[in-house]
Amino acid sequence: MHPYCEHPDDALSRLGELGLLARLRTWLGPVAPPPPAGMGDDTAVLAAGTGNLLTTDSLVHGRHFDDLLPPELAGAKLLKRNLSDLAAMGGRPGVAVLAAFLPPKTSVRWLEAFVRGLAEAAATWEVAIVGGDLTETTAFLGFNLTLTGEASRPVLRGAARLGDELWVTGTLGDSLRGHHATFVPRLAEGAWLAAESEVRTMIDVTDGLGKDLPALLPPETAAALDLSALPLRFSSTTPAQAFTDGEDYELLFSADPAWSLGGGPARWATAFRTPLTRLGSVVPRPADAPEASFGTAPLLDAASGRPLSFGPGYAHFR
Amino acid sequence: MHPYCEHPDDALSRLGELGLLARLRTWLGPVAPPPPAGMGDDTAVLAAGTGNLLTTDSLVHGRHFDDLLPPELAGAKLLKRNLSDLAAMGGRPGVAVLAAFLPPKTSVRWLEAFVRGLAEAAATWEVAIVGGDLTETTAFLGFNLTLTGEASRPVLRGAARLGDELWVTGTLGDSLRGHHATFVPRLAEGAWLAAESEVRTMIDVTDGLGKDLPALLPPETAAALDLSALPLRFSSTTPAQAFTDGEDYELLFSADPAWSLGGGPARWATAFRTPLTRLGSVVPRPADAPEASFGTAPLLDAASGRPLSFGPGYAHFR
Predict the structure, then answer these.
(1) E runs forming strands in chain A
(2) What residues are paired with A300 via a beta bridge?
(3) Does A13 touch chain B (CB under 8 A)?
């Protein structure tokens, strides 16, 4: 029996929809404003300037969380996944709507812990939950959250230039040993980097360097990487894990070399304790590299000039 | 075997994530703009003025559509459910993000038809699909769409006043015989009504009059209804179905009596062929009615003054 449905005396089906909605308001507390700003009408009515960014992410039992993860952390993770996307644009969060897919057997106390975890994260990052949707399922337990945000200079993918240096925050690999749920989205770091004019392109690492680094690189380029510099999460973490594990939720970006020459990393170190590592630089694509299209730029070992063969990062639907 | 997974040679698992993303862009066509305005970066970057409304709705196999419904209609229905919510605020649509929960056995041609149906509806109502999220599931097939919108005067629920007349568009009940999928969201009608200053409060009827009409009424009021006026969908449709069936997607609103005295219904008839019916009026809550809180206002038979007993509308999670 899964923890999320282990209390038949406490099942959602005993509450009904109106009871559940009333509980949700209580559990969310101050992060759920009353209508018209919040849930309770056909749509939420937003204040002016709620943002120029929009992103959506899901969280599914058996995929993004399991029975071992406390529901409070699962609820927080749903929001933090979206916040990490905003961070990678240099944005700050606005408001969110929540969709829940719930079997009638869902334990009300499990759901309360999940929603309270979400609410606590929302309070921490000042996100109002302004609307939502509840759908009854046969057995599937999942959630989706859509988040607005605002960035004065959104930092896009795919905009690296030849000669740029490649940087990554924090450490990589082995995320499933806790980090996938306890990570802190790099919102402050992302906003700080977006204000540095030499920072050119950025992404959050969620599917491994092998997939996410090529997303920064135009087709005519490649990345030459210093493997000895890779910031691995644990002493037992292998370089391959940094390339193929998912859920690092770290920021990967390129910057004009003028940024480090001008003391960018030193300014970073006074602003954040988060580690910052130079992984390598953007070089011309080797003439013999196969197909040139976005997302296929080769990753090379800077020492040998040879292609790395760690695999393509996390592949969904395979 | 369900139609959505009846072609093992055509399963999603043969495409993989990148293949699926490329197909999705093709299927969506012009309604999916390139990044940064559209999908392909960490978040979508929206144009200014994308809206002050935000709403989310889901569509789940076995609940909101079944194996008999052509996938094109299911895809369109996902968007139209959200558009109906905007219509009930008097809003016009902005942009949307799509979350899909897909088992690996999903047939690619089924999914193509679903997405093309969604894209055609998006083109009709000028909605750009600017982002999304794909999640692999074991067996669950479901979707969520979050939509922005804009209304200069959002028409809220719960704002009816004593003496207001109650009106409904179209016909009610028996929605499962086709209307639940073929309905046209009342966007034009909703925007027109929002521009009429005497229109006070509005909702879209999705859970039956029994549940949605009380949502317009403050606790100290009740609705006195002329049952003989109920616009029933078919000759075989019963009044009880208008009160308890769901998915009418019609607009229910109250207006100051000055609206009809001033020729509002006649102006409506020149603007729309959509039927408009006066259901009754807002009266004081009877002294003997139980608990007075939002959403519990009694519905009375205007002829007898007695409470109607059709049941509370569609109840989820029961």
Answers:
(1) 44-45, 53-60, 92-102, 128-136, 142-150, 165-169, 199-205, 221-225, 250-255, 276-284, 299-301
(2) A224, A307
(3) yes
ipTM: 0.93
B292 — pLDDT class (breaks 50, 70, 90): low
A73 touches chain B (CB under 8 A): no
Residue with tokens 């308890």: B244
- Integer Cα distance of B84 and A318 in angstroms: 36
B262: alpha, beta or left, given left = phi > 0 and alpha = psi -120 to 50?
Answer: alpha
Task: Decide: B199 and B155 in contact? Cβ < 8 Å.
Answer: yes
Whether the CB-CB separation of B60 and B141 falls below 8 Å is answered with yes
Find the closest chain A residue to B50 by CA distance. Answer: A52
CA distance A241 to chain B (A): 20
CB atoms B45 and A154 under 8 Å: yes
The predicted-structure confidence for B155-166, as pLDDT tens digits, reads as follows 999 999 999 999
**Which residues, other chains included, contact B195 with Cβ-Cβ below 8 Å and sequence gap of 6+?**
B90, B153
Structure tokens at B239: 């009044």
pLDDT digits (tens, 9 = 90+) for B70-121: 999 999 999 999 999 999 999 999 999 999 999 999 999 999 999 999 999 9
Tell me the count of A-B CB pairs closer than 8 A.
221
**Chain A interface, mutation test: which of B207, B252, B317, most A Cβ atoms within 10 Å?**
B317
